[in-house]
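Possible regression after last week's pipeline update?

I re-ran a chain I had predicted before the update to compare outputs. Posting the input and the new output here so someone can diff against the archived version. Not blocking, just want to make sure nothing changed silently.
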Amino acid sequence: MSDPAPAFSRGVRIGLDVGAVRVGVARSDLDGLLATPVETVSGDRPVQLRRILEIVRELEPVGVVVGLPRQLSGAEGQAAATAREYAQVLARECVPVPVRLVDERLTTVSAHQALHRSGRPGRRHRSVVDQVAAVMILQAALDQERRTGQPAGELVDHELEAQS
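New output (post-update):
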């Protein structure tokens, strides 16, 4: 399948850190250089998806990246299956915006460490850790795109049915 978003196309990109309870959302600048936090979306999956689709409509991105939480070995467990299903539903709902899955090993751990180093108390991490993880996922994807000339990750086929 050909990729609908050519490398280095100008425009905002959105990054998502899909968790069991919350989804962290980040965005890039128009030049795709810098990722910044947007918000943490809570609620059940339908509520989350509605809000994320509102953000997609509002920001009109050239692409969305969803973190794929692989194990250190590279294997995929239940969390990765959940992220794949989430990305599949999102891809169908936000056509023609391409959705890509990108490896996010250790981003939540790194986000907690960054917040701790910044002096933010651990009990206050929960409110922003998903956003920080989304920023890390998106920034890694932006950096890879700049380095390789190709969009990062695996394109999600919006025509496939989500696995249950």
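Follow-up from reviewer: compared with the archived run. The two ends are 24 Å apart (CA to CA). Marking as no regression found.
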